[in-house]
Every structure is written in structure tokens, then in C-alpha cells.
Amino acid sequence: MPEQTDDGFRLVIFPHEECLVADVAGEVDYRNADRFQERVGAAWRETGDDRVLVIVLRELTFADSSALVVLARLLDQRHDSGRRLILAALPAYLERMMVISGLYEAFEVEPSLEAAMEAVRAA
């Protein structure tokens, strides 16, 4: 399900082991944040099981406050469903934004997709 758009945003969602992985690249801002949230949220709901959502942000080159709103809404969806959400491979600038906003501590964060998979297996 890859999505490449002319606004610099790419999203690929795929199952991997016990997880649903959303690999995000390019830019997430006010132009595409709603699409990001809708696609990831819908894919997660459609799994219909306890699949862990891992959002890989390694190739995210730009994010504004809209991206933080999307992550917070997905966190709310996680709380509502009782499922697990892991952010993987946060770019340093996004980690700083999340720390400053107070969101960082609310998330489970792993340094890579591989580390996220290990954390899932260890649970």
C-alpha cells in the first residue's frame, strides 16, 4: 500500500510478524497530516486483532506541529483500543519537538524497527 504524493509525503503500511508497520518518509505537515492519520488509523483498526502498531520515522525529513497532533491522536486511539504503539527511529529534530511539547514521555520509543520487534517479542 505505498503512497507517494507530490507534496513530499510517502507512507507504506505492511504487516510484519505480530506488528503493523507504518513507514513514513518525506514531510508531514498541515497539507498531509490528516491523510497520514486516516490511513494509519484505518489500517490499524482494520487488523481487528491485538497487532502492535510500529511507526517508523527514520526517513521523515520534516514535521510541523500537525505531525505531533497526528501522533497524539494515534496515541489516543491506542488508549481507546488497549493496543500497543511504538515509535521507531525518531529523527533527532522530532525527538526534540516531542520532548519540548511533553509528548515524548507518553510514547514507547525504540531506536530502530529491529529494536521495536525485539521489544514486541520480549513482551
Automatic annotation (TrEMBL):
Signal peptide: none annotated. It comes from the Bacteria. SUPFAM superfamilies: SpoIIaa-like. Residues 20-123 form the STAS domain. Belongs to the anti-sigma-factor antagonist family. PANTHER family: ANTI-SIGMA FACTOR ANTAGONIST TM_1081-RELATED-RELATED. This is Anti-sigma factor antagonist. It comes from Microbispora corallina. The lineage of its organism: Bacteria, Bacillati, Actinomycetota, Actinomycetes, Streptosporangiales.
